[in-house]
Amino acid sequence: MKVAIPAEGPTLESAAGRRFGIAPYLIVADPATGAFEPIPNPGASAARGAGMQALVVVLDKDVKAVLTRHCSPAVVSHLEAHGVRTVSGLVGTVGEILERYRNNEIGDAGEGVITGTRPHMGLFAPSAWQAAVRQSCRELGAMFPVLAGVVLLIGLLRAFVPTTVLGSLFSGNAIRDTLCGACAGSILAGNPINSYVIGSELLKHGVSLFAVTALILAWVTVGVVQLPAEMAALGRKFAILRNAVCFLLAPPIAVVTVVLLHMVTGAAP
Fold it and tell me: Is 135 a member of any domain?
C-alpha cells in the first residue's frame, strides 16, 4: 500500500512539509519495501487550488494514505471520497514518519489524527486529544530556543533604548515623525502597556500625536524582534506578509485616527 508524505526536499532525510497542498515535494512511498518516489508538487507554485493539484498527483499514484502535518478540510473530503485516508498532525523527517507508520506508531495505534476512512470519533475521542497534546508539546519544545532569544532581545532593547533616545529621533516634521514612529514601534517589543507609557513620555517631550499613534499601532501589530518565533509558529511567508502589511498601514491609520480625534474634540492634532 502506497502512502504520500509532503516534504521540503526529495529525500527521506527531508523535513516533512507544513501543509499538504504547498509542500515542494510529495514523497510517494511503499512502507513494506521502503521504495519511494519524490514528485515535485505542482501545487507548491500555484496561486490558487494548490491542494487540489497535489490531490491529483496522489490519486494518480494510487496512494491509500496521506501522512501530513496539515491538510485542508476540502482536500480531506475529496481524499475521503476516493477512499484515501488522511493522518494529520505529524512532524519529523519523511524517513522518520515512514518508519513510525511501518511500526504502527501512527494512526489508531499511536500519534496523529486520522480522517477519511474511519467513522468520526468526535471532539472528545481520546486518541485525538492525546495526539493534540503530543503535537503541542513537540512544537513548544522546537520553539523554545527561539522564544528564549526573543525574551533576551526584548530585555536588551528595554535596557539600551531609553525614552530620551527615542525622543531624539523625532524632528518635528509630522510626516517624517509618523514614519519614524512606525519604524520605532516595529523594532521595539514587549507588553503593549509599555507603548502607552513611552507614548506619554514622548508627548511630554513635544513629539506629535501622529508619531506617537503610529508608534503604538506598529508596536502592537508589527514585531521585528518576535518575527523568528512567528515564522516558526505560523510559517515564513505568512509572518513576513502580515508584518509588512501592518507596517505599511500603521502611518495612514495613525493619520486618520488623529484627524478624526481632532474633528470630534476640536483639539489640535
Answer: no
- Number of structural domains the chain divides into: 2
Angle (CA) 49-85-70 rounded to 5° is 50
Return the number of other C-beta atoms located less than 10 Å from residue 78's C-beta: 18
The stretches in the chain having pLDDT less than 70 are 46-50, 107-132, 135, 139-140, 142-169, 189-191, 193-194, 233, 267-269
Question: How far apart, in whole angstroms, are the C-alpha atoms of residue 120 and residue 85?
Answer: 12
Report field, pTM of the whole predicted structure over 0.70: no
**90 & 195 share domain:** no
Residue from 124, 38, 120, 35 nearest 86 by CA: 120
Instruction: Determine, yes or no, domain membership for 137.
Output: no
241: containing domain: 144-265
- pLDDT attached to residue 152: 64
Same domain, 110 and 210: no
The confidence score (pLDDT) of residue 121 equals 42
The CATH number of whichever domain residue 36 belongs to comes to 3.30.420.130
